[in-house]
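Annex B.
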Amino acid sequence: MKKLALTAVLTFATVISAGHLSAQTALKDVAKVRDGIIFVGMAYEISERCDSINARLFRGLNYLQSLRSHARDLGYSEAEIDAYINDDAEKDRLEGIARRQLADLGVIRGDEATYCSVGRAQMDANTRVGWLLR
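NADH dehydrogenase subunit E: predicted structure tokens.
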């Protein structure tokens, strides 16, 4: 009887766990991960368009690894994380958000001075984007 009760509890726990995982929020909706990727994209764009500002490469890579670790801590599998990272449509969506946020900060596409100005302002304000630049 105890064996049957233990089996029933384990089966119930497995069903509950499986139900929890299937109802898990889509990784694209996890603000810390999504916003972190956007911040890295913004910093990268600034560093590519402004010759006097560079990306902090190792800091950026470590930050991206911390986002991956956060996703794992939330229960996402490596396969789910990789699928999110490799999703071309999601890359395009996040790139669009990053560019809109840069425009909101004063960047004018094709105008290097505006990238430099926004980048320096982000560094001075010690924002996440500024933290990724030097």
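The chain has seven helices and no strands. The chain has a mean pLDDT of 87. Further annotation is deferred to the next reporting cycle.
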